[in-house]
Inverse folding.
């Protein structure tokens, strides 16, 4: 997706994400452990559109390998179900010297879901992280913490609301709130979402994880296949 904001000059946040299922299941009703293994990749850039030559402020490269299943357990009513994601990921900004930032973490993310009768799903998904290989930035956990607290409510083919909160040490925190509306339900009639994003706090870029960003509202598009 790409979001455009105007706080501290015109800027944009650009993100490219995909995941790839390594072993497609031969029997959907009797999946094996490896059938739920994925490769993931996310690349996020903060783009200064108001400066001369419109440079990227920083880019984070984030490959991962993880195991994911939507429903490890499901109630008889099918309203409650519990999923799980767990794996390892690497993050770096591809820079050298004093601007180099890199880390690895292992994570586990239980996903508690409730399905409403009206056709929407509420998901609570805290991601617990243990950091490894953070020699370039040994105090990273002081700013980003060890848990991403995530909450999401999604209508079927409708509004999607999500929130993310991180809390580090000594009052370091970050809040991100997003709302999305399907473009197929607008005059554009195309795949993707109209996206509004609010961010405030630490860690908007990997390079500037120690910087406390002012509140920023961006409006943009999320394009999906």
């Amino acid at each position: 997706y790409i979001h455009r904001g105007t706080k501290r000059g015109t800027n944009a946040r650009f993100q490219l994400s995909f995941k790839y299922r390594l072993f497609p299941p031969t029997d959907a009703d009797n999946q094996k452990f490896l059938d739920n293994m994925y490769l993931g990749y996310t690349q996020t850039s903060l783009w200064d559109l108001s400066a001369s030559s419109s440079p990227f402020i920083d880019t984070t490269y984030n490959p991962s390998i993880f195991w994911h299943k939507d429903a490890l357990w499901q109630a008889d009513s099918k309203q409650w179900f519990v999923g799980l994601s767990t794996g390892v990921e690497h993050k770096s900004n591809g820079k050298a010297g004093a601007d180099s930032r890199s880390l690895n973490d292992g994570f586990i993310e239980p996903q508690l879901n409730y399905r409403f009768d009206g056709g929407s799903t509420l998901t609570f998904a805290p991601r617990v992280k243990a950091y490894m290989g953070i020699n370039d930035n040994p105090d990273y956990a002081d700013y980003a913490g060890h848990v991403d607290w995530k909450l999401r409510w999604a209508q079927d083919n409708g509004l999607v609301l999500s929130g993310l909160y991180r809390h580090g040490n000594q009052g370091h925190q970050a809040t991100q709130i997003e709302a999305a509306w399907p473009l197929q339900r607008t005059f554009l009639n195309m795949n993707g979402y109209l996206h509004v994003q609010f961010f405030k706090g630490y860690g908007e870029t990997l390079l500037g994880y120690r910087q406390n960003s002012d509140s920023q509202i961006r409006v943009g598009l999320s394009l999906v296949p």
Observations:
- The helical segments are 140-144.
